[in-house]
Amino acid sequence: MIKNSLTFIFLLFYVFGFSQTTIEKDLESEILETSRNIKIYLPKGYEQDSIKNYPLTIVLDEGYLFDIYAANATLFAKKDKSPQQIIVGVSIEENKAEDIAYNRNNGTLTTTANYFYEFVRDEVIFYVESNYRTSPFISLVGQGYAGNLISHYLKEDAAFINSFICINPSFSDFIGGELQSYNLSKFGKEDNTFYFYTNNSTSFSAKKQAKISRIQNGLKDLEIKNFNIISDKITTASSISSISEAVPRALTKIFEVYSAISKEEYDKNIKDLNPSDAIYYLENKYLEIEFLFGTNLGIREKDIYAIENIIIEKENGDKLRDFGKMILKLFPTSHLGDYYIGRYYESGKMFKKALKYYKVGYGKMDPSDPNADAFYENILRLGGQ
């Protein structure tokens, strides 16, 4: 409990470090027939880079959720565990029935909540996408009754939301039937990636825990291509602590494809692949990162090294040239693409071609690179051939 509270306090202090990048605006709404305050967090470097696009996250803000999410997102991006995000906090009226309530008799949204639902869908997202550089990846985040509201966006015919993050959700008694009616199979037909996150918590009442467990158990066997169900369970005595834990846990799963290849990812998806499939996996990972998140990372060296042994040890290293070409395609300034092509030609005793690629690769390296001297050994070794 103390550890969780300290984490929460740290995050709130961390927020003050980037609060100057948050813009507040009263957005005029034809749907609500009034204005509504929104907060827009722009990541570091947004103004300097006029080309880069960013995933969009809409936080239905009940007090501190926007700050917690923005702090976590900033830390994750700094640690290269997620892309930088444009984060929009949408204020919720103090009387929750005005924005996120549902009919207790059938689970449908109230008239005013339905207006708020449309306001977020048709006006907030439209405004941000029209005025800021966003990528196609959109997340919705809400806690409590706002989490229940977010689940209703699953019913949209067009699958335009990528991640539905329902934290400490206060679902209606009809949530099971509602989910069954939403034609979730539509997500499997999209060339995209989707996530549905919920968390349970020991801090909830027994009734609430049982309801969320039923939903999570009902979804666990749902196998829909591209639609990832994330059912979390948090052990804590405080609902606030469960929020501070749920946010980073959701980010870890939702942006898993963005992170460098972990041991878990390697063991699950890569280690048994043949060289051609391993190369395709790595290439597709970075193409997906660029498509979803608007981030052209090139390619991380640690990910190149992660599959290096597969390329070298299987099939007599015959795919080294393909490996090098893939690296040069995604990361043309990297010396490693030239290195692997050079190694391919050297193994085939085509020493002149190998020397050519080793020289090109060495020319791309910074002389201060601690690996530069070792790389130059390749040139010295073949210099007399």
Description:
With about 375 residues, the protein is of the alpha/beta class. The chain folds into 2 domains: about 1-255, Rossmann fold; about 265-380, Serine Threonine Protein Phosphatase 5, Tetratricopeptide repeat, CATH 1.25.40. It is built from 14 helices and 8 strands. It has helices at about 1-15, 65-80, 110-130, 145-150, 175-180, 205-220, 240-255, 265-270, 275-295, 300-315, 320-330, 335-345, 350-365, 370-380; strands spanning about 20-30, 35-40, 55-60, 85-90, 135-145, 165, 195-200, 225-235. It has an 8-stranded mixed beta sheet with strand order 1-2-4-3-5-6-7-8, with helices on both faces. Helix 6 (about 205-220) links the parallel strand 7 and strand 8 (about 225-235). It starts with a helix and ends with a helix. Mean pLDDT is about 90; it is low at about 1-5.
Strand count: 8
What is the name of the CATH superfamily of the largest domain? Alpha/Beta hydrolase fold, catalytic domain
* Proper CATH architecture of the largest domain: 3-Layer(aba) Sandwich
Question: Distance N terminus to C terminus?
Answer: 67 Å
Q: What is the CA-atom radius of gyration, in angstroms? A: 24 Å
